[in-house]
Amino acid sequence: MIRLALTTGEPAGIGPEISLRAAEIFLQENPDVEINLIGDKSLFAKNLHDRLTVQHTPLRANVVPGQLDRANASYVLNTLDQAIEGCLNGHYQAMVTAPVQKSVISESGIKFSGHTEYLAEKCGVSLVVMMLCGKPVFKSDLLPEMLRVALATTHIPLHDVSSHLSIDLLQKTIEIIGKDLKDRFGINQPTIYVSGLNPHAGESGHMGREEIDVIVPAIELMRQKGYVLVGPLAGDTMFSPNHLQKADVILAMYHDQGLAPFKFATFGEGVNVTLGLPIIRTSVDHGTALNLAGKNIADVTSMLAALQMATLMARNQSGTSGS
Ligand SMILES: NC(=O)c1ccc[n+]([C@@H]2O[C@H](COP(=O)([O-])OP(=O)(O)OC[C@H]3O[C@@H](n4cnc5c(N)ncnc54)[C@H](O)[C@@H]3O)[C@@H](O)[C@H]2O)c1
Ligand SMILES: N[C@H](C(=O)O)[C@H](O)COP(=O)(O)O
């Protein structure tokens, strides 16, 4: 039996309702899975599937759908802490996260920029990599079945991206991608297409030097170690079908460089995976959608995909993928 922790996210957003709906659907199709919803029991229906349980975590303030309350920020982090601890001690085989509202957690006085960074800190890992995977929603022979986009930097202001990029960061990021694609996704020696940072990948240094000073040296060092790398490629044409068909994963230098084209092609179907952790963590590709909260109309496709991917990764890890 695979046991999953499902953190139900910002209580004023769509997290609780999509978690419950998706879990009920997913369990009907996966008889070897149990799901533990982590959140306040008042947010969920009373008659649950027999393999669906609630790990009750009390809210700090009453919830009005769509209205953020910073008093519940510590509640949200408490749900994450329980899932992380349960994964680290082996109680859960993987954790899946519903969306949280980063701003309200920060406004409560707790420094928080995302699950990705929080998980790295709580698991004692100095670097993790955010990767989104998804099937394109446009059906075309020109597009691959699955797009994967990893990021060299995550939730930082655009003006800090250049100073964050270093040869060391890119080398370690490529190492994590190579290891996790092999260990967790069964892709030996993935072909990684690496983007530049500047327009036209710096135009031979006339439009920025990060390619020459940082990205090319990192690529060359990692090629010497046997990694299959193509780049640096101009960001504007990196997502052309010709490249997408040959790349196992695209490594973008910053959040919107990679995720804007990714979400254009896959929104609502994608899964966010944190690479480099000692535990398995997947998430949806969308946010709290406060405008839809409480209406029970939000799409659960991405949550179903996140549950599916966490289950597959857990089965691979326990060596039961063929069963
Ligand atoms: N995994 C996460 O925790 C996660 C992921 C992305 C964004 N966020 C956070 O969510 C908050 C809101 O972000 P945003 O407004 O940029 O993005 P959003 O994804 O919440 O909303 C963007 C648009 O997509 C729609 N949408 C989102 N999810 C949907 C669903 N399941 N079904 C139908 N429509 C859906 C929304 O109604 C809105 O129109 C921010 O605080 C952001 O940081 C969290
Ligand atoms: N960058 C993610 C996205 O755009 O989908 C999202 O903000 C969630 O990030 P975390 O998993 O770090 O919370």
Using brief descriptors, characterize the structure shown.
alpha/beta, Isopropylmalate Dehydrogenase, eleven-stranded mixed beta sheet, 10 helices, 18% strand, binds nicotinamide-adenine-dinucleotide, binds 4-hydroxy-L-threonine-5-monophosphate, 4-hydroxythreonine-4-phosphate dehydrogenase
Notes on the structure:
The protein is α/β, with parallel strands linked by helices. It folds into two domains: 1-125 and 278-323, 3-Layer(aba) Sandwich (Isopropylmalate Dehydrogenase); 128-276, Isopropylmalate Dehydrogenase. Helices cover 37% and strands 18% of the residues. The protein has ten helices and eleven strands. The chain has helices spanning 15-29, 73-88, 102-107, 115-122, 161-164, 167-185, 210-224, 241-246, 255-266, 301-317, and strands at 2-7, 33-39, 52-56, 94-97, 129-134, 147-151, 191-195, 228-233, 249-252, 271-275, 281-284. It has an eleven-stranded mixed β-sheet with strand order 3-2-1-4-11-10-5-6-9-7-8, with helices on both faces. A hairpin with a 5-residue loop joins strand 10 and strand 11. Helix 1 (15-29) packs across helix 10 and helix 6 crosses helix 7. Nicotinamide-adenine-dinucleotide binds at residues 14, 18, 97, 99-103, 115, 272, 283-284, 286-289, 291-292, 298-299.
